[in-house]
Amino acid sequence: MVEILELLVTGFAVAFQPQNLMLVIVGCTVGLFIGAMPGLGSVNGVAILLPLTFLVPPTGAVIFLAAIYYGAMYGGAISSVMLGIPGASTAVATTFDGRPLAKQGLADKALTAAAVASFVGGTISVVLFTFFAPPLAHVALVFGAPEEFALMMLAFATFIGLGGDDLYKTVFSICIGLVLSAVGLDIISGEPRLIFGNITGFLHGINFLVLAIGIYGIGEMLWTIEEHRKAGGQSMMSKATVTVKRTIGNLKEITRTWKTLLMGSTLGYFVGILPAAGATPGSLMAYGVAKQISKNPEKFGKGALDGVAAPESANNAASTGSMLPMLTLGIPGSPTTAILLGGMVIWGLEPGPRLFVDHQDFVWGLIASLYAANLFAVIINIAFIPLIIWVLKLPFTILAPLIFVLCLIGGYAPTQDLHDVWLMLLFGIVGYLMRKLDYPLAPAVLAIVLGPLAEPALRQSLLISGGKFDIFFTRPYSGPIMVTAIILLLLPAIKPLVRRLRKRG
Amino acid sequence: MTVRIAELAMAILMGVFSLYLMYKSAELPIGWIPDEGPGGGAWPFWLSVLMLLSCIGVLVNWVRRKGPVAVSEETYIEKGVLVDVGLVALALIITVGLFKFVGVYVALPLFLIFYMRFLGNHSWKLTIFFAIAIPIVTFFFFDIALRIILPKGITEPLFYPLYKMFL
Amino acid sequence: MKALRRKLLVHGLALGAGLALTAGTASTALAEFQPKKPIEFVVMAGKGGGADKAVRFFQSIIAENNLAPVPVTPINKPGGTGAEALVYLNGKKGDDHTIMFTLNSFYTTPLRQPALGVDIAEFTPIARMAEDTFLLWVHSDRKDINNVDDFVKAAKAKGSGWIMAGTGKASEDNLLTDFLNSAYGLNMKYVPYKGGGKVAKELAGKNADSTVNNPSEQLGFYQAGNTKPLAAFTPQRLPMFKDTPTFRELGQDMVYFMQRTVVGAPGMSKEAQAYYTDLFSKVYNSDKWQKYLKDKSLQGDLLTGDALMDYWKREREVHRKMLIKMGAISG
Lengths: 505, 167, 331
Fold this sequence. Notes:
The structure holds three protein chains of three kinds.
Chain A: H1 2-15, H2 18-36, H3 42-49, H4 58-82, H5 92-103, H6 107-142, H7 145-157, H8 167-181, E1 184-186, E2 191-193, H9 208-231, H10 244-255, H11 258-273, H12 279-293, H13 306-321, H14 323-328, H15 335-346, H16 355-358, H17 360-392, H18 396-412, H19 418-435, H20 442-465, H21 471-474, H22 478-504
Antiparallel strand pairs in A: 1-2
Chain B: H1 3-25, E1 32-33, E2 37-38, H2 42-63, H3 68-71, H4 79-102, H5 104-119, H6 124-145, H7 156-166
Helix pairs in contact in B: 1-2, 4-5, 5-6
Chain C: H1 2-24, H2 26-30, E1 39-43, H3 50-64, E2 72-76, H4 83-90, E3 98-102, H5 105-112, E4 124-132, E5 135-139, H6 148-158, E6 163-167, H7 172-184, E7 189-193, H8 196-204, E8 210-211, H9 215-223, E9 227-232, E10 258-264, H10 270-285, H11 287-295, E11 303-304, H12 305-325
Parallel strand pairs in C: 1-2, 1-3, 6-7, 6-8
Antiparallel strand pairs in C: 3-10, 4-10, 4-11, 5-8, 5-9
Helix pairs in contact in C: 5-12
């Protein structure tokens, strides 16, 4: 314990060198902008700036990139709340309640909540990281395909009840998301599959962002044009303002969600540690759990503050968590950390279990810088809220084309393939037509995020076990996770049964 | 077209799409491979089957007139909405089509001018301001700062001096 | 953003100036061609994958030493085990600003999918930067396995319950697994994962019994004492693993390398080809790359021009035979 504190102090000495502190501030700001851009997330930000980091020493470089990672996590919420478009898969759940809040003219509240939640999640997770990194590394290492699949089942299970009222349409939405996620390459057999019309663009699969920007960006905007016409002009969005009094009120209300914040932070951190999972399942699960334990679950999806607090605290906590396997084992906990590992090679470090021992300055400098990154990110984020609110006040016929432009470029940027932009337009228009018929589309977006993680894990597990399903139940970690998932899945069926039995008894 | 009719059409369309997905998935083995588990096409195939069943479920509800959408006799897309939404959708399609040939930096200003001036009725002054400012910001953010080179089509050579200056 | 650029530039001047002056100016005299727009560097893998890391490493060396007047921008085309990237580059006929980084899927993917219409002999050879090596690895806790004989005994006993993890079907790892199965009469089950890093982790976490990782992928776990090599698929012992025998020493003629090569679009102009060959020769000779080669136990000299094309043609035939043998393609 004392030893850890000593190391942390030396880390702070590194992190608070003026140059490193500057890098944190610049990194957070850059990350915030990249994250706020629909289509660009921390993965892009870190990948793009990585090759330029030779300009500073390794510790400064990783601090800079970690600050971008963090800033982008904060920024992701901005796009979710303001435009209703998740900038990255980690911010999907934030749209569920952030967007309704914005539509009610409470964008300032949603943004403040997101910033505070991100701060709490980030800080709690860094503290957890500081004291419990090495022991948890073991969990990350033994976590194999069966455990990954069990975790995905758990993520799905926490989301039961997210869909609309129509069961058939909800099932349809989930399935189409899962099928679209299978487009591209079947990694088990190495064969291309579902290559529609032999178009090469389908070979890289359908990126989650293409569907998300299509549905939430293009589709949502077309929907808004229709609503706007019916409402005859003014929308509620422009009612949001920023005053000192309002902000204090907002902050007070946010502190009331402390239980959700604590839950989201811890859950996010632990899910983030697990390799390959990353922040996305963490934030989705936090949202699902927050809804299930809430006293007013019916408010979720209609602008519940807890619905913003849970995923935002979780995704920041998870991004810290995903650095644990990166630093202790040299394995990525998320796509972004995979790129950071590449960075270590550029900087001449050998990622792996020895890093924690051989490069204490680097590791603890990074950990200490995360504390600083959180502090600066929340300040910078809150400082930008008035600007965002101002943008929302622009007349609809100016705001709308700007959002469309963002969508088109955001659809192009991640893969730099026009094929994806066309696909995004198609999803947007079809999504709009389906939405008018009450097809819930959020389940499809979730499914396309989780599908590519779930299917290979399922099939790798069955390959290992020779086709036997008991592999999911007999292993020390996957067993309990799988059982929990099944119980949660059956809960909606069991609840009325229990109630009926009680009445009788 | 009423909402009720649209519901029927969409369910049939999606049912047909499910069938197509099933057919396409079956290019890889969809059954159980002994000692290995499901084949490469199994995951999309059986999920497509579930999609088809959901569509049939929607159709059953439609026949039984169950649910608000299945009974609604309102117009699916009113004429005014069709014009508004249709024009925007069309403009988007044309814009993306132009990306490949004349590039982002011609297509985006045209889109902005069309939307702001002709759909939004904003002044020429404001329209031109945005039509110039947005591409400039985009260029510096994406092409220069992030080095995501956006498509330029035949206008590419015009950018060589800019690359030289800023990259 | 502007502030950041300026900041990076200031640092860059301080750090890179010395190198930049010596390396940057010499190239202009040699080749007439000068890139007019950013050089597109196609990566046959997603962001964070093995090939992606290498490309960003090259990009960093080029930027640090100011070797090119324009930036190199990586663009990921991960689809279909290289198929998407190959088709993309094939469609850029005569383009002087597009290059690609390839591994051995450069041979195997066009062989397995003739419908792509890609003939690698049409591509422009630029520079082979290295050849990566393969070793057979098991977990260090397997005290009963200390050599290949022990390995064969243990794997035989478990039959198809012995899990060999690798990167994708018909990949390098798969070819080597098939080789081991047929050479020693084993029935190991091959389980494909996404990426070599993940494969290495599955072994360290005991979710797999063995792997045929590159040293660079397994190095972290090896140095921490989690995993150990049993034998190398190289002609001679590797300097880093002096105590590890080669399969050749053990009487099995199995030598296999993975190329790490930069290739240009088909029909690239002679001048551009000369320019990129010169550029990547400089990258190859940079201290950073030389250190990387040594640290990660990579082999292979710089190979350019016609010599590289001959090498491709030779390797393609080797791979054709291997794929026919494993039943992935018909002869």
